[in-house]
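To whoever is on call:

I kicked off a structure prediction for a single chain this morning and the downstream step that reads the tokens threw a length-mismatch warning. I double-checked the sequence; it's 134 residues and nothing unusual in it as far as I can see. Pasting both halves so you can look.
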Amino acid sequence: MTVRLDRSLGFYENALRLTSQRQQLLASNIANSDTPNFKARDFDFNAAMKDALNHSMPTSAMEMAQSNSLHLNSENGLAGKYGFLRKNTQNNQDGNTVEMDVERVAFTENALRYEAAISFAHEEIKGLASIVQG
């Protein structure tokens, strides 16, 4: 039964974790839209999800190791493996690459993805509960 639960709910666990981390990254981009020389970042959700489903990326791998106390903490553990800087389509004199329209669209899309994962997980749990109850 545990294997069935892991298989059923593991997908949603990974989807919710990854969308939550991407939402934090997108929120950071929006918050820094007026910061000079800030570079907008994102990560490849599909590649991260594929790795998570193939179990090649354990949950603990999402955190970057800090081998020296002088190292800066990572704002997002995905930045290293799946992260990338967004391509700048507009030239800004202050060097900032955040485009609010792009960020708003990505933020909204990601929020919808999160809500969909919650809805599907809820339906899966209801289905499993009905099986258990007979």
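Update from on-call: the warning came from a stale cache, not from the record. Cleared it. Sanity check on the structure: The chain has three helices and two strands.
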